[in-house]
Please model this.
Amino acid sequence: MAEHDLTALMAAQLDRHLVFPLLEFLQERQLYSEPEFLEAKIHLLSGTNMVDYAMDIHKSLDGTDDVPEDMVKRCAEVVSRLRSLEEAAAPLVAFLQNLQLV
Model:
């Protein structure tokens, strides 16, 4: 069945976030081994801000609580950027939450 799988061809044309449901479906069907799915998910997550999820997958793949240092650094960068964006958007959010002004 795996020889007829077109997911790799379709995934190249889709947004990374749309590929996850496809991988989950294939994982439930057990077309590939579990480590192959985990490696594919880590590769897919490498270009996103979903670093915590990638760290969890890496832990389950290796069976340890250790994660690579580059993932830890990337996580810190993502959280820092999120906080700075929240601070920058705070005045707008406060304005929109004030029913008297809106």
